[in-house]
Amino acid sequence: MSPDGYAAFLGKEYLTSYLPAGGGSVKLVVTGDGDVADRFERSLRAEADQQDVLMVSLSAETTKAHMIDQVFFAVARQIDWDQVAVAIVSTAYDDIAVPAAPGRLTVAEVADDHDLDPRELYRSVRRQLEHILLADTSLPRELRRALLRLAQAHLGGGDVNRAETLCVLGWLTGERVGLRELREVMIYARIGRHNARRMLISVGRLLQRAGHRGLVLHLDLTRLAEMRRPPLPERTGTYYSKAAVLDVYELLRQLIDATDDLVGMLVVAVVPPELVTDEKRGLPSYAALQLRVADEVRDRRRTNPFASLVRLDVRLEAVR
């Protein structure tokens, strides 16, 4: 398929309705060269912008793609967590039938707009926030607590100060935050390889709450094909041993197996052709992933855009 044609297909079949309805998917996209990869990324981003789907692009060169926690942190840095918190607070006000005007989310402002007792309103909206977040077992417990703190900061009740908000944001984005500061905001575990996968697969659901229709996670894995590091003065970013490459494949395998939990999330991993056939560093070296994305039995003369593995070529006519 052509890069533009496949991006248009994803926009029509996945971004328009499938992701907003709660669907999720993982695709491996084989690009002939860098120009094809760049063209596909631009086209996919245009489709995502048109459908109000947030697209996050990561490169294995600048992100340690073999570490799931580093992938989550890189995604989290591109998310407007304040927008997510504002949407959750607005939903809480709506749920108690006291809608808040845009930009007026503090309890004092909303109480003044509706001629209500601020203390009673504060108790009601805080109770609703706790119900929305703490009772939602589809989200990791620590993430629920973090979001509750970010949401409470918008109520203006003094429960969460600026330093505590920055502590929560630092925890989400992988910054160094002391355990004492985390305990003060009721967070008792750092984000690591043991819990980052569940954090990552929750992002699409959260973005839908914030007004987006879903998330596209674009992973450029071209760097995995480089077997030898260049001389020290020429090195840039991260290079991967064979063991690290297998860890990346394991990460993708885990995401594929968690497709049922990828609510509102499309993962697109872009790889060069050599990683499809290379016995040492390519998909054949990790059967657990290859078996999940191997070419299906089909008519070889016809392209199957719904397949888990799709090859792109600018010479082919775009499929609309």
Give the topology.
Blueprint: H1 3-15, E1 24-31, H2 34-50, E2 54-59, H3 68-76, H4 81-95, H5 107-114, H6 118-134, H7 141-152, H8 162-173, H9 179-184, H10 196-201, H11 203-209, E3 215-220, H12 242-257, E4 265-271, H13 274-277, H14 287-293, E5 309-312
Parallel strand pairs: 1-4, 1-5, 2-3, 3-4
Q: What is the number of helices?
A: 14
What's the number of extended β-strand segments?
5
Could you give the order of strands across the largest sheet?
2-3-4-1-5
Which whole number gives the mean pLDDT? 92
Based on the structure, what is the oligomeric state of the protein chains?
single chain
Terminal residue distance: 10 Å
Shape: globular
Unreliably modeled segments: none
Helicity range? 40-55%
Amount of beta strand: 5-15%
Structural class, by secondary structure, is alpha/beta
The major beta sheet can be summarized as: 5 strands, parallel
Radius of gyration of CA atoms, rounded to a whole number? 22 Å
